[in-house]
Amino acid sequence: MRAAEWEARAACRGLRDLFDLTFTDHRGRVPNRHERAALAVCATCSVRVQCLDAELDSMRLGRQTDGVFGGTIVHQRIEILKNEGWRRTPSITHGTRKGYQLHLQRPDLFGEPCADCREACREYTARYRADRNAEEAS
């Protein structure tokens, strides 16, 4: 079943904005009251397995989403993936020097450096060289 098909059948469809607005504290390993409300909706959902699979796939690619997906909170999903031998990978912020470095370090996850990251690295290098030349001149 394609994502659009199962998402259209999700019990939380139409409620997602309410849940997203209320998920503010994800530090605890025990679901907070908003997460418990979302978990109750998940319990009635016929596509809970597809939702969880999609979120786990997303996390395997380095994207972590807080909140409830597939009847789980983020800490439960991390535990599921750890049991598979998964290690948390960094997320990438494109258009930054750090993003450029992550492209180079993990091309298996992030691909070749994108134009935004290359430009950010060029700008950083130019600023660094200018600062260094100014220090040497003084």
Task: Report on the architecture of this protein.
The chain folds into two domains: 3-83, no CATH class; 97-137, no CATH class. The protein is built from eight helices and no strands. It has 138 residues and is mainly alpha-helical. The model is unreliable at 21-26 (pLDDT under 50).
Sum this structure up briefly.
With 138 residues, this protein is mainly alpha-helical.
End-to-end C-alpha gap: 66 Å
What does the main sheet amount to?
A: none
- State the shape: elongated
Q: Which class best fits the helix and strand makeup? A: mainly alpha
Number of domains: 2
Enumerate how many helices there are, as a single number.
8
- How many strands? 0
Q: Beta-strand level of the residues, as a percent range?
A: under 5%
Q: What is the residue-averaged pLDDT?
A: 82
Share of residues in helices: 55-70%
Low-pLDDT residue intervals, each spanning 5 or more residues:
21-26
Give the SSE order as H and E letters: HHHHHHHH
CA-based gyration radius = 20 Å
Explain the layout of strands and helices.
Layout (H helix, E strand, L loop, with lengths): L2 H6 L7 H7 L10 H11 L4 H13 L13 H10 L13 H9 L1 H4 L4 H23 L1
Helix pairs in contact: 6-8
Keywords:
mainly alpha; 0% strand; 138 residues; elongated; 8 helices; 2 domains
